[in-house]
Amino acid sequence: MATYNTMQRTSILSFLETNIGQAFTVKEIVDGIRSDNAASCSPSESTVYRIMSDLVKNGIVRRKINQNREYQYRLSNVKSGSISIRCKVCGAVQHIDEKVCSEIIDELKNSALIGTDGDIEILGICDKCK
């Protein structure tokens, strides 16, 4: 299926590029676009969900689950990935040091049969929930 550069898609990508390095829920993306006076259009939440799904599928955007168990989206950063550990009970998230992440991801690329897109989430149980 062809990808069209609609006004909504352009607004979403522009918002994410303006806020590069940050992750947002769909609601935060919609609110951010609506609060921007320069935005040419304001997509609905359902439109943002549909577009984000396509952007994730095409590797343009990365998706992760935050502490509130909501999806958050950010532009992909091909040069480095991140590794986070999330508690399956309470949803608390802890991030691994960037240098350690690079080493682990490089090792996986060199020895694993299954590739990674650069972002890895490990599930476990935190000390508080044990």
Regions with little confidence, pLDDT below 50 for 5+ residues: none
The main sheet orders its strands as: 4-3-5
**Structural class assignment:** alpha+beta
The percent range for helix content is 25-40%
The total of beta strands comes to 5
Supply the number of helical segments: 4
Strand content: 15-25%
Average pLDDT, all residues: 82
* End-to-end distance: 47 Å
Gyration radius, rounded: 16 Å
Order of helices and strands: HHHEEEEHE
Overall, the morphology is globular
Question: Mind summarizing the main beta sheet?
Answer: 3 strands, mixed
What is this structure's SSE topology?
Elements: H1 7-18, H2 26-35, H3 45-57, E1 61-65, E2 71-75, E3 82-87, E4 93-95, H4 98-111, E5 119-124
Parallel strand pairs: 3-5
Antiparallel strand pairs: 1-2, 3-4
Helix pairs in contact: 1-2, 2-3
